[in-house]
Amino acid sequence: MQNTLRSSAIFEGTGLHSGAAVRMIIRPAPANHGVWFRRTDVEVGNGLIPARWDVVETSPLCTEIVNGEGVAVSTIEHVMAALAGCGVHNALIEIDGPEAPILDGSSVPFVRGILSVGLRRQNARIRAIEVLDTIEVQTPSGWARLSPSAEPSNGLEMSFEIEFADAAIGRQEKRLSLANGTFVRELSDSRTFCRASDVDAMRAAGKALGGTFENAVVVDGDKVLSPGGLRHADEAVRHKMLDALGDLALAGAPILGLYEGHKAGHAMTNALLRAMFAKPGAWRLVTCDPMTAASLPGAGVESDEIPQVAVA
């Protein structure tokens, strides 16, 4: 069955790129509502924005959604990953600014907040998107692919590969089934990262104005500049998988299939969803039986599975 929150979860922090203070409240929502954002600081016009693939604006550094009146919310990928990874299907997210709070740079503060208020089961079955045909998008530097699983009841499987010149990251690859709380245990505490050589360029472009060593992993060659070092030896590829789950959540329903990414990012994952939905017969909407529902990322998640390394 579908889930929403038992009560509201409140988060306060700073936007990674804007540097602005922001307050965000994830509120319960009715069955079949889906996930929507509402800009509470917008006094004139429509402040509602659906968390959906077809309202995404292309950006290499974050995921931004924009409604028909130009009202936007950016850097939503970490909270969307947390909702998907905790099995929340319906929520209204109120936010008083144009960017979600970065918190510690991972999804784990959102996971902790969601699970602390708990979930409420709703009187509606979960519907999921079953991938029926292989879809692939490419750029000169990488590619992303969705393909059918051997069994739909396998849920979502993910394989990711990255490669950076900095030895602190280098080449990393990982493959996971995201069933039964894997996201919370294995990916949720992995933080966003960047190269020290890119920081000045990002700030000159008006980005990363709220970035610190406390909310991002900064590497320089073979050195990790952020205090405390890495949470995982392969934290970078784990974070890329976290981002991908958040971006795939904009499909509007859990995906049953295999996602593969090679040097992929936000824009490529969104292009992949657009390609899938544009191809008749590449997917179908299914009502989940108990076995399939049990394989979804948020099924059976418990608070004691939250990685303790990230507790403030």
Automatic annotation (TrEMBL):
Zn(2+) binds at H78, H239, D243. One of its GO terms (biological process) is lipid A biosynthetic process. Gene3D superfamilies: lpxc deacetylase, domain 1, lpxc deacetylase, domain 2. GO terms for molecular function: metal ion binding; UDP-3-O-acyl-N-acetylglucosamine deacetylase activity. Signal peptide: none annotated. Belongs to the LpxC family. This is UDP-3-O-acyl-N-acetylglucosamine deacetylase. It comes from Sagittula marina.
